[in-house]
Specification:
Elements (H helix, E strand, L loop, with lengths): L2 H21 L7 E3 L6 E3 H17 L4 E4 L13 E9 L1 H6 L5 E8 L2 E9 L4 E6 L4 E3 L2 E2 L12 E4 L16 H6 L2 E3 L4 H10 L4 E7 L1 H13 L3 E3 L12 E6 L3 H8 L7
Length: about 260
């Protein structure tokens, strides 16, 4: 496989999709709910996923596609080459704010992330990487991640997980929040992983994300020396929903051993 050619095609399609999304800002969106009243999907989400599927099917008919909106293949294992697509990661932000959302595409070969592309459409920031060749913001190389102590760290963490909830014992994460320098929540897993990759935050934790939420960001973070696992410290499988823990090197191990190993994830 000519990965440079795949990489170039994917970046071009992402830029084109971003133009479609920006053009939609003046339109009235058709908004529907999926699993619950806060799990939203718009006609633009669906249009963008179908745009990518059409491009991939035409250029790479032998490749498989996993997408959020249900138009792609049913994937049970990552054999061969698989594109994991989130046409708009952060749909609620897209609807309410018209910012803080991104297009996310990860391309995997036999379960190994080869290409990661995340496009912050509003800010025209394209984050991209091919495994082994560094990661970039537009044309500028991103620097390798450096270690950081917990007390100096900004942790990306939804406030839901330090309130009483049905997924975890919220008391388990309170010590981490207390010990860290600060916390942030952006409402887009793709952007929060980008912020780990760029050092804007030092770690990101979430209790339940789908493969298309994290596939591209995992490539970017790992390319810069960061660590991406579930909350048990195990490798992600990218075919089912997982908890997620991405962090700078060193910091990942400290948080895992001092805070997360106490929980039943």
């Amino acid at each position: 496989m000519n990965w440079e050619e795949v990489y170039t095609s994917a970046k071009q399609w992402v830029i084109e999709a971003g133009e479609i999304i920006r053009a939609s800002f003046k339109r009235t969106l058709t908004i529907r709910t999926k699993s619950n009243p806060n799990d939203l999907v718009t006609d633009i989400d669906q249009q963008i996923e179908q745009f990518f599927i059409s491009k991939i099917r035409e250029r790479y008919p032998e490749h498989k596609i996993m997408g959020e909106e249900g138009f792609a293949d049913r994937i049970e294992q990552l054999d061969g080459i698989v594109w994991l697509i989130d046409p708009i990661d952060g749909t609620m932000n897209f609807i309410h704010q018209q910012r803080n959302f991104a297009i996310s595409i990860g391309i995997y070969e036999h379960g190994i992330g080869k290409v990661g592309i995340i496009y912050d459409v509003v800010h025209d920031e394209l984050y991209h990487a091919v495994r082994g060749n560094g990661a970039y913001l537009n044309d500028q190389p991103l620097q390798p991640l450096k270690e950081r102590a917990v007390k100096e760290s900004i942790i990306a963490l939804n406030a839901t997980w330090v309130m009483e909830n049905h997924r975890i014992n919220h008391q388990l994460l309170i010590p981490l929040v207390r010990d860290a320098r600060g916390t942030r929540s952006y409402g887009s897993a793709a952007l929060e992983l980008v912020y780990v990759a760029t050092g804007r935050v030092d770690a990101y934790l979430s209790m339940r994300l789908s493969p298309w939420d994290v596939a591209a960001g995992a490539v970017l973070v790992e390319e810069l020396g960061g660590v991406v696992t579930n909350l048990k410290g195990e490798k992600l499988d990218f075919v089912s929903r997982n908890s997620l823990f991405a962090a700078k090197p060193g910091l990942h191990q400290v948080i895992l051993e001092k805070y997360l190993k106490k929980g039943n994830w």
